[in-house]
Amino acid sequence: MEELDLATTCEVLNKIMEYELAGVVRYTHYSLMVTGPYRIPIVDFMKAQASESLVHAQQAGELLTGLEGHPSQQIAEIQETHKHAIRDILEESLEHELFALGLYKSLLETVENSSVYLEEYARTMIGQEEAHTIELRKMLRDYSS
């Protein structure tokens, strides 16, 4: 086993935490902006995503502090497109999830062969983010031309 690069690991965990916290705001915003006949199930989906993002941020923060890192009090930048059609919201959500997937893959690369626990955490989160992207792609199928 290689030695864990604590500084890089903590840096990536901080980025994950900031991005997941931005997800709380993003998905809460989306849940408020959805209109139309499919509003109720999509609002429920967005609220669930917001809650899950908070849990993910807390998990990353717990790992970060467990590694003697200091959690940021920032959130990642959230771009407001002012596009609130369901298709736009779902496409932006997919972009958000794909970026999060990349962050967890970066964590896996950082901790691979250094910490079984952190590898398993990263793999679990990658699986969850991949599941979200699959779900969003399925939701977007009705909008394909």
Tell me the layout of helices and strands.
Elements: H1 6-33, H2 39-66, H3 86-111, H4 116-140
Helix pairs in contact: 1-2, 1-3, 3-4
Polypeptide structure, described:
The chain is mostly helical. It has one domain: Ferritin, core subunit, four-helix bundle (Ferritin, Up-down Bundle), CATH 1.20.1260. It is 74% helix and 0% strand. It contains 4 helices and no strands. Helix 1 runs antiparallel to helix 2 (39-66), helix 1 (6-33) runs antiparallel to helix 3 (86-111) and helix 3 runs antiparallel to helix 4. The radius of gyration is 16 Å and the shape is elongated. The N and C termini lie far apart (50 Å).
Major pleated sheet: none
How widely separated are the two ends? Answer: 50 Å
Specify the number of helices.
4
What is the CATH topology descriptor? Answer: Ferritin
Query: Radius of gyration in whole Å, from Cα?
Result: 16 Å
CATH architecture: Up-down Bundle
User: Portion of residues in helices?
Assistant: over 70%
SS-derived structural category:
mainly alpha
Mean pLDDT, to the nearest integer, reads 96
- What coarse outline follows from CA principal-axis ratios? elongated
Give the gist of this structure.
By secondary structure, this protein is an all-alpha fold. The protein has four helices and no strands. The N and C termini lie far apart (50 Å).
Which features does this protein show?
145 residues; Ferritin; mainly alpha; single chain; elongated; 74% helix; 4 helices
